[in-house]
Amino acid sequence: xxxxxxxxxxxxxxxxxxxxxxxxxxxxxxxxxxxxxxxxxxxxxxxxxxxxxxxxxxxxxxxxxxxxxxxxxxxxxxxxxxxxxxxxxxxxxxxxxxxxxxxxxxxxxxxxxxxxxxxxxxxxxxxxxxxxxxxxxxxxxxxxxxxxxxxxxxxxxxxxxxxxxxxxxxxxxxxxxxxxxxxxxxxxxxxxxxxxxxxxxxxxxxxxxxxxxxxxxxxxxxxxxxxxxxxxxxxxxxxxxxxxxxxxxxxxxxxxxxxxxxxxxxxxxxxxxxxxxxxxxxxxxxxxxxxxxxxx
Amino acid sequence: xxxxxxxxxxxxxxxxxxxxxxxxxxxxxxxxxxxxxxxxxxxxxxxxxxxxxxxxxxxxxxxxxxxxxxxxxxxxxxxxxxxxxxxxxxxxxxxxxx
Lengths: 296, 98
Prior knowledge:
By secondary structure, chain A is an alpha/beta fold. Helices cover 23% and strands 26% of the residues of chain A. Chain A is built from 6 helices and 17 strands. In chain A, helix 1 runs parallel beside helix 6 (277-294). The radius of gyration of chain A is 21 Å and the shape is elongated. The mean pLDDT of chain A is 95. The mean pLDDT of chain B is 93. By secondary structure, chain B is of the alpha/beta class. Chain B has a 5-stranded mixed sheet with strand order 1-3-2-4-5. Chain B has helices at residues 7-13, 29-44, 59-64, 91-97, and strands at 3-5, 18-24, 48-54, 72-77, 80-86. Chain B has one domain (3-89): Glutaredoxin (3-Layer(aba) Sandwich), CATH 3.40.30. Helices cover 37% and strands 31% of the residues of chain B.
């Protein structure tokens, strides 16, 4: 029997573990893939208060070591189901806890168009900092309008010969500083009010079809398409007992409690306005503290 | 530690037996995470040989195997490419493939 089981070893989950461990609780963190969550894709983290600059992997590794050194158990097992009796069932075992914190995070949202999966690693990428270098002096496109899309376009503009930035609206959601930096790059071409409607290629991606909101269609030749259209949660496995909103995020009236007693939520997987490293670790510390207070 | 190889060494090592080559780059976060798993597997699995290849220094392999996304794992059996795994993969999933 654990005091607290945390599902997900991203910044939210590991911070929850840290707070519970420091209160001498018996803690298990379950993670399907690897610790760190989405932050490991960040080349540099420069908006975390008190840390001027750190790589996402280093941040995650420091936090992981912090949890391990305090005696935290981290098991790499995929959670299949939880019950309202606070049992957590993985592909290998069943665990019991007094409280459960769901911190499953989010993953890259897909475009959900035909051939998208087939072209991953063959021209389609969700990580510009990972794959950008393979497109040296080639033509690429970025789709999206948020900070990530703009950052990707700016990053790629220094590597690729040309970058198309495709966005479904006529203005960006991204911060102004990213937008003006992108505008200064003369090899970024903006395509507004448009979507990618078709992926074309035999062995690898060769062309994309772009459809404007007015219905105009054009085809451009590109070597790479970087998809940065936001995140999506992965909470379907909890849907039988936990309330989710229409997009699959966990509903919580106060940002901590779910609709089930003793089951809490933290980080990107819940309904919230800002999904950042700072808000994830904030969620984790609050969820652990409240869970311990209400534990019996 | 998993041995680091380059374009030339690659041709030799994949010729025989079961071989896994972890294609990575120093600047790629998910690659560093996957490398930790490869290190663990290398000390646990004796039927496979494990190598790491820095794509920044290995243009030939990168081109020949059409690597456009990292991490990419190349899995060989007696010189024949059995599987190409693109992107991060959990230890559980990778163990199943091997």
